[in-house]
Amino acid sequence: MSTVAIITARGGSKRIPRKNIRPFLGKPIIAYVIDAALQSNLFDEVMVSTDDEEIAAIAQQYGAVVPFLRQSKTSGDHASTIDVLLEVLDEYELIGRTYESLCCLYPTAPFITSQLLKTSYELLLEKQVDIVYPLQQFSFPIQRAFKLNSGIITWADPNSFLLRSQDLEPMYHDTGQFYWFNVNPLRQHQRLANLTAGGIVIDEMHAHDIDTEDDWQIAEFKYRLLHNMHSYD
Q1: Superkingdom, according to UniProt (predicted)?
Q2: CA 62, CA 49: separation in Å to the nearest integer?
Q3: 18, 130, 174, 194: which has the fewest C-beta neighbours closer than 10 Å?
Q4: One digit per residue, pLDDT tens: the chain, 233 residues?
């Protein structure tokens, strides 16, 4: 089966400027993702979709390809990941290359490993789903959530407060690291809502969403612990 890794790395990050190539424990954070994709040996091509020449140069330095730059319509704040993936597939078709499956990887996900990519790809094939998500379990039962309105709280689900926490069904959220897709359903539906989905569960030490400076520091701390690295700061 022909596969492509698409690492989505536009240049206009706002909350952490230039975060897609910011040094993470000594090397650009995108390099960790490129390394994992290359080491998995799953892909016919590991490419970076970017509108930024500096990001493109760093991606190529670490072994990815950048066969074309992202168009302006998919470089703004309101372009979706699906828009970017479809653009990449269209650009490849123009040069006569098609893929049966793709993995969309986010460039600020240094906890991705080649083994995780392999395991999730096997799930895509085994379950014959359209998409596979990496998931984490919520650490607190979300059925016991409160709503807050002008200082007054109400229960989101009053019945759940009558149950023991161990009797509540575990709930999960997307880790925001990567997604495996079967290309044909993605092209057909062009949205996530109508895709059959599978999930692989990741523990809290092996994923961390990075949106703020605090997130960045916590992610580096966790990475050091996982890899037995010392800090000399």
Answers
A1: Bacteria
A2: 15
A3: 194
A4: 799 999 999 987 778 889 999 999 999 999 999 999 999 999 999 999 999 999 999 999 999 999 999 988 888 777 899 999 999 999 999 999 999 999 999 999 999 999 999 999 999 999 999 999 999 999 889 999 999 999 999 998 888 887 888 889 999 999 999 999 999 999 999 988 889 999 999 999 999 999 999 999 999 999 999 998 655 44
CATH code of the domain covering residue 86: 3.90.550.10
Amino acid in the structure at residue 45: E
Quickly list DSSP for 109-153.
-TT--HHHHHHHHHHHHHHT-SEEEEEEE-SS-GGG-EEEETTEE
- DSSP percent split of the chain into helix, strand, coil, nearest 5: 40, 20, 40
| Structural domains counted in the chain | 1
Residue 69 carries which side chain, given as an amino acid letter?
L
- The answer to whether position 233 is within a domain reads no
The span from the CA of 41 to the CA of 63, in Å, is: 13
CB of 137 closer than 8 Å to CB of 201: yes
- Alpha carbon separation from 34 to 14, 38, 195, 218, 229 (Å, rounded): 22, 6, 27, 22, 21
Model pLDDT, residue 19: 95
* Domain boundaries, position 220: 3-227
Q: Which two tokens stand for residue 217?
A: 């520091």
Residue 29 lies in a domain: yes
Measured between alpha carbons, how far is 176 from 83 in angstroms, rounded to an integer? 17
